TrEMBL record:
<dbReference type="GO" id="GO:0007229">
    <property type="term" value="P:integrin-mediated signaling pathway"/>
</dbReference>
<keyword id="KW-0472">Membrane</keyword>
<feature type="domain" description="Integrin alpha third immunoglobulin-like">
    <location>
        <begin position="85"/>
        <end position="173"/>
    </location>
</feature>
<dbReference type="GO" id="GO:0001525">
    <property type="term" value="P:angiogenesis"/>
</dbReference>
<dbReference type="GO" id="GO:0005178">
    <property type="term" value="F:integrin binding"/>
</dbReference>
<dbReference type="GO" id="GO:0008305">
    <property type="term" value="C:integrin complex"/>
</dbReference>
<dbReference type="GO" id="GO:0033627">
    <property type="term" value="P:cell adhesion mediated by integrin"/>
</dbReference>
<feature type="domain" description="Integrin alpha second immunoglobulin-like">
    <location>
        <begin position="3"/>
        <end position="77"/>
    </location>
</feature>
<protein>
    <submittedName>
        <fullName>ITA2B protein</fullName>
    </submittedName>
</protein>
<dbReference type="InterPro" id="IPR048285">
    <property type="entry name" value="Integrin_alpha_Ig-like_2"/>
</dbReference>
<dbReference type="Pfam" id="PF20806">
    <property type="entry name" value="Integrin_A_Ig_3"/>
</dbReference>
<keyword id="KW-0401">Integrin</keyword>
<dbReference type="GO" id="GO:0009897">
    <property type="term" value="C:external side of plasma membrane"/>
</dbReference>
<dbReference type="InterPro" id="IPR032695">
    <property type="entry name" value="Integrin_dom_sf"/>
</dbReference>
<dbReference type="InterPro" id="IPR048286">
    <property type="entry name" value="Integrin_alpha_Ig-like_3"/>
</dbReference>
<keyword id="KW-0325">Glycoprotein</keyword>
<dbReference type="GO" id="GO:0007160">
    <property type="term" value="P:cell-matrix adhesion"/>
</dbReference>
Amino acid sequence: QGQEKLSCNPKKENGTHVVLCELGNPMKAGARITVDMELSVSGLEDMGDAITFHLQLRSKNSPSPSPSKASVTVTVPVEAEAEMELRGNSLPATVVLPTSWHGVKGSRRLEDHGIRVEHVYELHNKGPGTVSGVTLSLTVPHLLGDHVLLYLLELGTEGGMNCSHHPALNPAQV
């Protein structure tokens, strides 16, 4: 019949976080109540697929020597949501290669292998959740038949990312 706000107190009991809510005292025999609770739990990224709550009803007014302890376990699936965005550009944005240009075999000078083009990719998490263990795979065509299309010179990362190098990276050690 109406709604009341509960007075709840968080505490730690035997290494477990407990929230104790007082439902009413005295409560009439045969009374039926419904309790809606909204809990805010942080750090769910490392909780796995689900989080389990143990709910227990304790009566202090029980006439028996030991108070009743009706309990139920509720398992709630954890679903993290995050939207990833990949941005990229090339510096310079456009390159026109001369039709008569040929690379100098055996040269260790960078300009003898072609025009430098830098590709920059940025992976952004637009949230709302955090992410970990993300894998980004980039495939760059470096050969056209038996001819070098793009000479892959180096690969670098920023922001604590790990990178695995392709075996065709800087084969002439320029």
